[in-house]
Amino acid sequence: MVSRDIDIDIEFYSRDREPRRKDKDLFETVEEVFDKATVLAVIELMRRRCIKELKGVISSGKEARVYWAKGFDNEDIAVKIYLTSTAEFRKGILKYIRGDPRYEWITSLHTHKLMAVWARKEYSNLKQMYDAGVRVPKPLCVYRNILVMEFIGENGVRAPLLKELNDAKAIDSNMAERFFIDIIDNIYKIYWNAKLVHGDLSEYNVMVYRDLLYIIDVSQAVKIDHPNAHEFLYRDIQNIVRFFSNEIGIKTPRPEELFNGIVKGIREIT
Questions:
Q1: For 5-141, where are the alpha helices, taking DSSP H only?
Q2: In terms of C-beta density within 10 A (0-12 exposed, 13-18 middle, 19 or more buried), how is residue 92 classed?
Q3: Which of 50, 152, 195, 216 has the smallest count of CB within 10 Å of its CB?
Q4: How much is the CA Rg of the chain, to the nearest whole Å?
Q5: Is 172 a catalytic residue?
Q6: Which one of the listed residues 25, 217, 225, 236 is annotated catalytic?
Q7: Catalytic residue among 16, 200, 211, 236
Q8: All domains of the chain, ordered by start, with CATH?
Q9: Which pLDDT tens digit goes with each residue over 173-212?
Q10: Which regions span the lipid bilayer (predicted)?
């Protein structure tokens, strides 16, 4: 799998034709990383002036890669591309879509359609959270299996995860206490303002940029009337409490106290 930077400019393409013969090398470079359907989806987003240049990989997982890219105002943007749908992935998403009438039908879809719906689900969840005042990357557009959003970082370097910052011993006790309160406040906003539950929140999907926390990876978020919403909410809180109390070492309220406070609409942490 090729990991070197990819640089595609929209000037190579026009709305009424395939890539020209002289663009063959560029097109093949892209195809080494993506299948043809994904390449065409990237080109369509360029035609729609959502992406100008696609640069290098900034994170890579089993089901998706995130790329640093440039928009038409030369702004940094992040492009998340869902790549495959493994049996393990299908099994993993079942707990999030069972009980959610918006998406219960998607597991019967073949790979590309499943990933396209999952990308749209993340876009929708991001938009609900962003509009509700939750600090998440601003969603910009979505097409097929590709989600485009605000880039959290600078000059193609993504902001560190909360986990990475702690591993680097860069979080002192005062910062940790402030971060903890901020995350719990955002969990509250997700629940009461966005009417969602993240469902997989931990130190691995919180970024720290310019001393602010950004919650990421929200594709699995569920509505608060989902039958497992409270189970997921409690687990999110438990993960955050475990990290701040066990890994960083600050004193925190018990998970059940925070959970009960949030579901009752109590915002203050005591």
A1: 24-31, 36-47, 87-97, 111-131
A2: middle
A3: 195
A4: 20
A5: no
A6: 217
A7: 200
A8: 8-154 (3.30.200.20), 159-263 (1.10.510.10)
A9: 999 999 999 999 999 999 999 999 999 999 999 999 999 9
A10: none
